[in-house]
Amino acid sequence: MKKHFFLLLFLIPFVCSCSSTRYTYRQIENDNDNFTSRTFQCALPELHKAVVRVLLTKKFVIDHEDAVNGTLTASRYFTHGYQTIVVVVQSKIIPKSDTAQELFLNGIQTTERNYVADRTRFLLFIIPLPGGGGKEVTQSKEAEFVINDKKFYEDLFNKIQSEVDTKNK
Fold it and tell me: Which one of 13, 22, 78, 95 is at 20 to 30 Å from 49 when CA atoms are compared?
């Protein structure tokens, strides 16, 4: 009886933990967001330059750029106290024809927190001792999610469209 109790004690948490993440991949099948892509009437180099200009005007930093394949990764950092929020935008241009390109955008937001530990040694809790401790900063990721805000993507696509239109005039 005791053996069965210990077996159940370890088996129940294992089964519960496996069942909670078992079918997470099915969420991909349910993602039917069509607002993350748009077709533009221009050549691939023009569209790529327009995407770069828009992201730079929005104060993003270009991390990776491949104009030949039409890929781009840009990030922007926001700091609020000990919290850092990173927004990463990935773009891919797929040619439909010589004058029509489809642009796909994907935004990811990551929240990281910095923890500061003071390792300074004190004599009688008042006088700091030389050669001891200092401050140690550790960083941990709190959250990461895909940006599903339709307005975020529409704003970027509208700015890119206006950049393409000004270059075609």
Answer: 78
Q: What is the DSSP string of 108-143?
A: EEEEEEEEEEE---EETTTEEPTTS--EEEEEEEEE
Give 65's DSSP letter.
E
What does the alpha-carbon distance between residue 159 and residue 81 come to, in Å, rounded to a whole number?
31
Average pLDDT over every residue of 61-83: 91
The backbone torsions φ and ψ at residue 132, rounded to the nearest 5 degrees and listed phi first, read -125, 135
Give the pLDDT band (50/70/90) at residue 48.
Answer: very high
CATH architecture of 32-112+143-168: 2-Layer Sandwich (3.30)
The residues, any chain, with a CB within 8 Å of residue 26's CB and separated by 6 or more, are: none
pLDDT for position 114: 74
Q: What is the chain's alpha carbon radius of gyration, rounded to the nearest angstrom? A: 25
How is the chain split into domains, by residue range?
32-112+143-168
Contact assessment for residue 143 and residue 136, using Cβ atoms and an 8 Å cutoff: no
Tokens of 136: 């140690």
